[in-house]
Design goal:
The chain is mainly α. It is built from 16 helices and no strands. Keywords: Cell membrane, Membrane, Transmembrane, Transmembrane helix.
Amino acid sequence: MNKTRQPLLRNKGVQSLLAALLCIVIGLVIGYVVLLLINPAGAWEAIKTIVENFLYYPTANARLRYLGNTLVKTAPLLMCSLSILFAYKVGLFNIGAAGQYVVGAGASLYCALAWKMPWFVCLIAAIVAGAVLGAISGALKAYRNVNEVISCIMLNWISLYLVNTLLANVKEGASPYTIQLSTGNPGAVMPDLGLGSLFGNNRYVTIAVPLAVIVAVLIWVLLEKTKLGYELKATGYNKFAAKYCGMKEKRNIILTMVIAGALAGMGAGLLYLTGFEQWSTTQSSVPAMGFNGIAAAFLGGLNPIGAIFSSYFIQHITNGGAYVDKTMYSAQISDLVSSLIIYLCGFVLFFKTTLDRRLDRRAEREAAKAAAQKGGEA
């Protein structure tokens, strides 16, 4: 029996799944305890509402429509998750995904509203903007050994205020929000190709959703099945060994950050070019999407395919938290419960390492027992 179970538990995919499920369960339990401490009367209903999300609505059409809203925001979260995990695979921590997401939003919206460009040009602009910002951090790391975390954090805030200033030229006159795409430039709205009709005629469900999934598959292929992916990961493991083997370690570091930045920038384009949200030119904090991508990346086991499901889950509970009864709990309670689960996502690798150690100990005990039995028979 052990011979059939142990290889299954050794499988990295199975370990990632078990670790992710454990994080989710522990997070929900802690969240439920917190809700009990605040107001026991509505704790069960609140935690159930967070988990249900769109199932909160009584009609099938409403459920489909709000499921569509969750998917619309899952697409950019998935792209930010891919940005984080791609850089992490190459030994870099791209906390600058938030800033790259910001410049992607700025480039796509400015091209759409100021220059009246079509959606695909605006999306390319978002990708290029994110890539350029990523290249700056990559170049500083490669040529001056500047820690990418420090440079990325600085660039996050620089990006935010630059984009706020830029998009102030295309905002509505009576509000700080940018002009709606549907009125300012309908041609900049991404096509839905009939997808909206599948989700209760939700006009925000566009090709952004399948496009994000396709990119996730392509990133998996790049990392696992190509020579370039092997070189990038080898550089991340040991840049000196990679250089000794003839690999261009500086180029690989910069290229990694360029690709990571392009992914985060594309994520912003996939959200704002649906018309689902407008940018506020007075916001003083970097959007959380880039930081939530860190949780999605680790919850998905740092695997591009796993990131598809983890990104959906995180967005699912985030959206579900908006429906918690505000007469019993403050508006921030949904963010608190979501944050607990997201925080625990960082322990996925810890759980996997702990499982491996336990399996190693069990294997050692079984080997010692088998050796003792063999010695006794002799």
